[in-house]
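Issue 218. Parser rejects a valid record. Input:
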Amino acid sequence: MIKLKIFLLFFLVLSISHAQDYFNLVDHGFTKEIEIVAEEPKISEIEFNGRKYSLIILNNAENISLLPNFLPFYNFLISSTADAKVDLIQYDFDEVDLPYPLFEIKERALPDGVEFVPEFTSDGKIFDFVYLGKMRGIDLFSLLFFPFQVDGQKLRIVKKIKLNVVANSFAKINSHEIFTSPKINKINLNFNFQQTQQEFEYKIFVRKDGVYKITYEDLKNAGIDLKGVQASRLRIKNNGVEIPVYVYAGGDGVFNEGDYIEFYAERRKNKFAGGKVDLYNDLFTDVNVYFLEVGDGAGLRLAEETGARFFENYIDLRGASFYSEIHFENDLIFERLKDVDLNLIYDVRDHWFWTELSSNQQTDFDVYIPAPDQLSLDNVKLKIAFHGITSTPSLNPEHIANVFVNNQRILTTQWNGQNINIASTDDSGYPVLNSTLKDGLNKVSVFNASEGKVANTIFAVNWFEITYRRLYQADKDQIKFKIPPEYTSGYFRFELFGFKNPNISIYRIGTSKISNVEVVKSKDEKIGENYHAIFYANVLSPDVEFIAVSENAKLKPDSIAKDLKTNLKNPSNSFDYLIITHPLLYDKQKDANDQNHPLNQLKNFYESKGLSVKIISVDDIYDEFNFGVKSPYAVKEFLRYAYFNWTKSPTYVLLAGGAVYDGRRYPNLDLIPTMFYQSYWYGATSADAWFTFIDGEDYLGDVLLGRLPVRDREELKNVVDKIISFWNQKPQNWNRNVLMIAGEGKDFETQTDYLVLNVLPKYLNINRLYVIAGSIFSGGTSKLINFVNDGQVLINFVGHGGGAIWADNGLLKNEDIPKFSNKDKYPFITSMTCFSGAFDYPQKTALGVNLLIEKDKGAIGVLASSGLGWILNDYFMVLSIFPYMFDPTKTIGEIITLGKARYYSNYFFWPQAKTMVFQYNYIGDPAVKLPFPDGKTIVQSERKLISSSDTLKIQIQSSIQSANAIVSITDSAHVLKQEFTLNIQSGRASFSIRPSVSSGFVKIFINDGQKTEAGYSVFKTAGSYIGDYFVQPENPKSGDSLTFYGRVEIANAIRPDSAVFVISRYKSKFGRFDFLLGRDTLQCFSVSSNVFASSRKIPAVAGVRYVIQMLAYFSGKVYLGDFKELIIGGLPDPSLIPPELNKLQSSIYLKNQDLKFVADSVVKVSIRAYNLSDVDANNFILKIYDNLRSDDNLIGESRFSVSANSVSNVEVPLQKNLNIGLHRIYAVIESDASSGDDFDYSNNLVYNELVYNFVKFNSDSVLINENISLKRVNPLTSIIGFEYPASLQLSLSQNSLSPLKVVGDSKFFVAKYDAFGNAGEVEIYVKVDLSEQSLNKDRVKLYIYDDKLRTFRVKNGSVNGEWFYGKLDESGIYIIGYSNDSRSPRIEVAVEGQSFRDGASVPSNPTFSVLIEDDEGVDVSSNSLKFKIDGKDVAYSEIVVPDTISNPRSLFVKLTPKLSDGEHWASFTARDVNGNWSNEVGVSFRVQSNFEVKIYGNFPNPFSDKTFFAYEILGSPVEEVEFRIYTVSGRLIQNFKFPSSEAREIYGFQFGGTGVPTAIGYHEIWWDGTDRDGNEVANGVYFYKFSVKREGKTQNYTGKIARIR
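Output the parser choked on:
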């Protein structure tokens, strides 16, 4: 391993000096020229291990980065248009010989020291232009200039390059101002949404698959009282889609005591969605959420399908079996998988595994498999997911796995590396008969067959699935089943057996609850006494699934919650600061009004500082953005929505709650889940930064985010108390202190030295602590604690570390934190090492977490890594962040986000760059500001250059008028030598002192108890100083004459031979001050011994930026001074960019969503225009361009005016028709003599990607192209929307639908039509390709995509010759196609949940359930359902069509007519999606409104084995029915009752299979001649009493039953 002061080299390469004018931009409009002049390099040398190396040194560090071979290059952060192009025009170069070869650097990982060589190279490149992404709406690029090329020891130096830029806008960006003002999305709304009344939603949480039964009492116990609610209005949704449910309402239609809801639900799974072949479980949760709602109309219901025999012919499934697939998985081991998916989010594959096997190791899994068919000759199918853990390239194959089922080998598979392997018996299996399986526990064994001689290979078992032939036998009183694989469709008789409870319910999943099921008691040899359920069903597809459950097998939810609804999707929301937390920490119903709650205190505090704050429960985010299901994606989607759609985008986001990688096992610790990122060489690492990348797919943060990783309310209070007390403290003298810590290693000391000497503000009191002994800065834990207790605003650590420790000599461990005594003196800590920011461990070991949550001590915030540290890139990150660190106006969130952007811009080519941006997490509040002093105190010495005997005469000037100042004299290494206090009066003070060192700093810190200021002056005995510029008049205005002043000191010279000011004048053209007007060189004269003034005055011109630099000449040498700028205002500033972005010193070229097409009688472009000046903007020109900004592409222009500091909406009519399709539309503000000049042209351009789909009818017909034309039917139709080819492409789900192409086109005809509210129709004529031989022209039709059906349905049309004619009469996506499907849909009608019998009685308001089935799909549009009652058409509005259709091939619609008493008849026909009509299904019935119970007695009577009692309910349903059987002596021997929770009492009704016993209609109660104990009764006469309860009253009917055997 290399042991070298590599950072010393880095510092030599990046010697600091002041910025120079080496980047020049000349604007020619759409094209621009850039000239970059490289400064003269210094070629130095360094010796290492007896060898010498050459170093190339540049003085200017502002835009300098390093290649891995230490070659410096220029890097400029640029804003431009997203499609900007840069080309090389010319370059000048020299060649020199290097005395020695270049030294190359190797990056090293912490803590293992592994070396990595970065992959980026600049070989052959002179420049590069790289798109970085969007930051707060701004397109950012890195413009790289490589001035040095090396070939052996020959150095090629590019002195100057010229680049041609093709872009509407292009300029350097100053990122300091990006977050200083809010991002406004909407100007006309400036209020936050307020709910006028409390609204609640009801959530049902489930963790298992099955049928759930929720009673009225269950809901009431959860605080949900639905008493009196119309049962028809109840609905349940999952994933935003309403699911069909069964609601029992006791016959009165009102939900009350004893009523219930049933539905099929599943736990949360991924089920291999998104192409993730190994990911079955959801990585974030296994809890699924269903929402119970009370809708305005009827909810979606499971149809009540009859199970009675409907057809004479059927397929009998007695003795048959079906394919059952069982998924086995147990997530016990988390692997970070460091070798795969670099720079991707970790959920592209599974990271959780059941077990891991080393070489020659075997693991057995006990798995439960119910009811295998022992007679089946089929083989068992197995699919198993493996994952390599080790990666040994020298082995091929590396991993070998053998799999056994009950000791029979079923599969062998092999693969290499850390990769997924999904092995299946379909590909590499051995035959294992179904009879091998046992009913119950079976053994699956996995053996790692790798020998392990070369290396110990390890792989993981993720899951396996077993598919086998299963009998139709219930297990634990339930069974989920399909038809046997021998069939694809048909009419079947199902007989299910093995139930212990006769109260059996059967459901066609997602479609219906099956009534009229016959339940038979049986006694089988293997399973003993059990119940069989027999029913008949028509099945159209082998994919149709049923589930049968007895009453005791129905599930209850994990929990039911009544939740106060929020409205996060209301665009009028407008908040600066969002606090996202968890109900365990903040109950929005109980805690909202508790002013002592920590989060309310934090909210009130920030509101007092002018921020608008909202506390949001993460559950509400899940509800609105992920249908209630926990996921970090929901949090990001919410932030994305708020960023783009709220009136004002949030700036700050605080995640108040912890996160762990094992959130499913520890849900109460995983309060606000994080996202994990596949980091370089470490794998999955927690990465909160992912939430901030909103505007574009990039690595630039768009919001400022921090996390308080607290796990309970006590920890939350600790942290919030620290935040508020930190903010509330008055300025203290420790506010000037910083501590820089170097771990064990000269590398870290050299890093720290450089930070101290070249980066930190000189006015700070800089402390150092080095772990290695032998230095004046050396020390350990006790010294660190003392420093912390003294108070430090910033602590930076570079060194070795782990999650719970700064590891160098055990400098700081978690157990040391309680030893601190630094209440209210909390530092911000940058912990540049490994894992100290890994907040995701359940054990809470991360040092950064404990530093924050410790009560009354520790840190105010910590920036730390959750992954590996990198010896160079950690340091590059610090160098990028520190330029923003010491601005007291900036929040910590701004500092980190801007610093990361700067880091990524400079080092994006390093392989660790993306990892660094993701893995450095901020643990703390992003809105906290560090109490650094404002560095604007002026500290002037009579001379900067002194001799050893001179006395320094210091003048101090401060905005603080009266205070005590601390004066510190340090040496050039910032080691304190002298210190005293001084009184400031009227903002001034002076003193004289003879320093005890020859060179160093005079530092002033002023604190008046309200604010702090600081400044410094340098003193030295050699060199030069040029600076301290000022201008007269002090605040110039346009028209003033400007005189410039500056100080010049040169060692060993009384005064320079001469001095000049160079004044560069810039004007905004297309970028902000991007155009160089010219330069003035002004000779100077001496005002005093060291102060010079320009001898010539120049005029101050409005809208001009003056860049000032002074040059001095002495004894043939030129001395360069600092730069300073001056901007003159006084012009209007019309802008297409909101005010909050105007402070960016760049050309801001935004994609503006406010730029859009609008249409009335003409098509216009609409955009908001702002005036950012206090001068009115009158008569400016707004021009609209298509795709390019050129005269040929001008499509509209209009003049507009905007008052000072206001906004106006401008609409520009289009002067040209555009081609239908996607266009990039530009809006540009221009000026002329009528409008006058513009202060800033950088905000005058915006664009948006817009689809032009407008067709204007100047006559009755419009030609779209030679093969497509449109004709209006209504002469008043002027504009429609028509897009061809449509940008939205949809897949075809119909098996038989074949789309057609337009003649000459390679793609199918797909068009989007929008009527824009116009009445009438538009005719379309299309020349279609009719060349297919199988095509039947008569079947060619126009189809429209039906969002409800999620498929296309037929509309109209016909072919005439080569042309197709059709009508567009509703908005949507259209295709032209044909289908050879001629099969008619099938219709089955049930009334009140029972199969319909002609002449049956129904209530006066009956519910007809119409089952419509078709292989291709059922059309439910208004013209496709023809229902009639008594010969009159039923209005479509009276037919209840489900809002959500889960299966368009099999669906139910309902009809509830109001009928008079008497005889009626009804007919039903329906059409499928291809236009085929069903046969008419007709029924006759009679209505009786008066309540009546008809008793038909029992049959047979007498009976031998069994008998049934028949009755019919007319008029209205009843609440309860009961059938009791007595002996002649009056002893009760049997009773049947419905509803009842006892299986025995239900059985008699179930056996008959005649529907819900309390419903209107015919019913049977069967008795098998046994008593309540199951014993056969003797021959004889028995009495029965049949009772019905209605409206609280009971009616009784009696009779006799005789038994003769």
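Fixed in the parser; the record now loads. The radius of gyration is 41 Å.
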